[in-house]
User: What shape does this take?
Amino acid sequence: MSMPAYYTTKDKIWHYAFRVICYSIFFFLLAPILIMIPLSFNAQPFFTFTREMLTLNPEGFSLRWYEDFLSSASWRRSIQNSFIIGAAATVISTSLGTLAALGLSRSEMPYKGLIMGLLISPMIVPLIISAAGMFFFFSSINIAGTYLGVILAHAALGVPFVVITVTATLVGFDHSLTRAAANLGASPTRTFFKITMPLILPGVISGALFAFITSFDEIVVVLFVAGVEQRTIPREMWSGIREDISPTILAVATILVLISIALLTVVELLRRRGERLRGLSPQ
Amino acid sequence: MAMADATQDDVQVGNTTDKRGRLVTSDGTPLRRALERSMRRRKLTAFMLVAPLLAFILIFFAFPIAQMMWRSVDNPQVVDALPRTLDALEDWDGTGMPGEPVFAALHADMMDDLDRPRREQKIGPLGIRLNYELSAARGAISRTARQVPNFEAPFADAFADAHRLWGQPELWRVIKREGRPLTPAYYIAALDREYDEAGSIVKRPENRQIYVNLFGRTLALSVAITFMTFLLGFPIAYYLSILPMRYANLLMIAVLLPFWTSLLVRTSAWIVLLQQQGVLNTLFVNIGLVSDDNRLDLIYNQTGTIIAMTHILLPFMVLPLYSVMRTIPPSYMRAAKSLGATPSTAFRRVYFPQTLPGIGAGGVLVFIISIGYYITPALVGGQSGRMISNEIARHIQQSLNWGLAAALGSMLLVGVLLLYWLFNRLVGTDSLKFG
Amino acid sequence: MSSKLKMVALSSVVSAMALGAAADDPVSLTIVSWGGAYTASQVRAYHEPWMEQNPHVTIVNDDGSANALASLRAQAQAGNVTWDLVDMLPSDAQLACDEGIIMPIDHDEVLAAAPDGTPPTEDFLPGSLGECFIPQILYSTVLTYRPDAFPEDAQPTSIADLFDTENFPGRRALQDRPGTNLEWALYADGVDPEEIYDVLSTPEGVDRAFAKLDTIKDDIIFWTEGAQAPQLLADGEVAFATGYNGRMFDAIEVEGMEADIIWDGQVVEWDGWVVPADGDNIDAVMDYLYFATDTQRLADQAQFISYGPARASSSELVGQHADLGIDMAPHMPSAPENYFAPIVLDNDFWVDYGDELRERFANWMLQ
Assistant: This one.
């Protein structure tokens, strides 16, 4: 936005002040996340920049916290657990959620509002309540402290994201395409895989990514439902923060930030592709 | 997986009519009924697509929560442990001491319990349950239970000798009152109330009231956090909405990266920044803003909770605001200004009202999430920054008063669902989008 | 001498029999404890030597003791007990015992006698045994301070000094629960250690304790996790901190923190084992318990952490710290020079009044 010529001095001051305010807020959003990255290379066990770091002396930096992270058996196991649980939960919530979204996007779906509300509820109900309920119930059917229990719990928490994302994709879906396929003699299954699926795929993938990140980042349910064998990365971080914060946490955090940047990029690309495919985006 | 529009397959519409002049299909079925049948089939197909997920959510999500809420009223302990005693207490009016038959029944109930296998014994849980209503009741029951085999009639004296509480009407009133399979007692406790001697519900002594205050503080913190996200979110959402798409998408990363970053990472970031030996305090000391022995308390209190949660929830405010602001044509503001409104009037009277749906959506979303927050207050809240979720977790994991935890949880849940319903009425779930 | 020999022979027969029952079947025991340095001391003193003797057993350590009651109750209600042995406090053990979710223990039957033949019920320190509870250690909550926070000639020496903000200014870190704090408030207010719980059983006594706490309220920081207390002292955030003596020992002797312990009014409590009812590996668990709670093993644990063994016969065997090589005996809460004014935590009292006092304490913290 360039400044219009008729701006008075007051307007100009406001114009710049407003931008300064906005960029400070962007700074507030990003700085805490980014500041951990250099600190994770600190050679000292402190959370502040040492004199060596500020003068860019190589001796002030080290990879010792990354070594700490990678050489610890419990951290390694937690990485493995996070990916196993995240992947399995994503498969469940994405497959069931996509099917349900297909049903929900049909105009003849009965009790749509009620069912939609119920399927969205894992996102609305405070996590502590979901976690407590699952803790009691899963204990009573013998799946507390098992992989199955954590996976089912995380699948339930991921469902709303898949349902919302895929339903949103289907809003722009042209139903005459499937009718055309049917008229041309394609079976319903063939229609689904050849016509529907490719068109909603970007929505399904971003839904799956949301479901995955939900599981990957989840901690409250893990605190209640998981046993010592199922500890995930956030669970190890929780112990680390409560007991004693060492810069190892920052090394883990840095790696997780890089993962989120990768995921963010994928989702953004998918969103643009989806909009282009459905002709929604003016660009 | 019938994706094709069912009308095409099921109903062949011809121009034929039946004897009574109704439209029929080519096979002779009345058109009305054929259409109805086809509609039913399409409804069923749609429902079958949703059914697996619906069943999954009902079994592994809705049922466990309902089961947990049930614990807030479930009260089997007294009824199970003391059937005869409760029978004998039928006639007791709650004043003075109950008679010898009641003590004899209590003795019989306790003797019965000794014969049960250990895991099925009822007296232990009874003591734990009654101690929630009356301090020292657990000791009275468990210590007496060990001695009952040696008791001889008259039992009233034997019990009173074993523990002083048996000689006081108070314990008996509690037993009689809680000898009911369902109880409101956990809700009464969750509202900082208790029963008085006459059996009516009164406020607890002031020095034992905690939960109402805690709910109040949770609400106040959530309001403060929602307001802070609005204060910070509105300008940047506006700025993003007036930028050309290319720049807006680039700057949007600043909003989306935190959104996609692990909650624990963001919380640790604030610990790193805010603690006394942390980045901010060290910076302040180095530039001479505060002295070294006077570092600021920015964390492990309400300040820490508000700062960290504002940061964590800000994207939930910015995203809905931004999507609403994008749709407001800039010509409105220009029109208002050309009609003589000052920029601030034009903003207040023309622009701001149109952003209200976005503010509503973002505000309710942030408020709902923050009211049930657990992790961040637990890690950076200290004592004054604790919220109701932390108390619920404590009662489940440490004090083991699951009934009270369920009552507090149910109250929180009902509050959140009411807000969600309001949110739906205001903006509809369709406006929820991510990324 | 001959009786000692007989005991040795007998105990090896007992363990041989226990072993014979399942000599080759691989067994995995899940043992739940507090994590950190404490679990480490158990691993070195108990688990490792025992697994050496029993190669078919593997031990899985779970640091779930802080929330053990909730998990135990949920497991028991589900009829699916996955834990074999749990380390917990006696008050929690009593609650679990009342609920019937852990096993009653006949101590003389299942535990080893002292080397001189004294039966366990006489060898374990008085008052430490519980219906379902086998004590391992005696620990205490002590007051610790930074010497550099006060002039050299006016260092604090007693619990009363904690409540004297005029002569001993500075912030104090206390645990966020009523236990210990209420006892100390009364002790500092002049109540004899022996009578503290009698006074605290009356409403006036409770008011008196809270009134005393009110006098230092503005200077208090609360801590929750055991690791926070030494951390607050080390960072210089507080002048005084209450904390577990083992953690304070670690911070001072191992990490080199500048701080001193005040043993006056130390609040003494036990910690020990309970066995969940209906576990699958009862034989192996009992064999482990027989081994891990004998006189030598309890004394061995003190080489790794400064908690006192719960057996009288162990105390003379307490040697030097395994890594530092310093004598451990003077650092034990039970050492005579430290045990001059102890307050023994009364679990019966906290069983009866805990619910109510926790509410009142929570309310007081919020004010």
Observations:
- Chain A touches chain B through 105 residues (CB under 8 Å).
- Residues 72-244 of chain A form a domain with the MetI-like fold fold (CATH 1.10.3720.10).
- The mean pLDDT of chain A is 87.
- The CA atoms of residues 178 and 196 of chain A lie 7 Å apart.
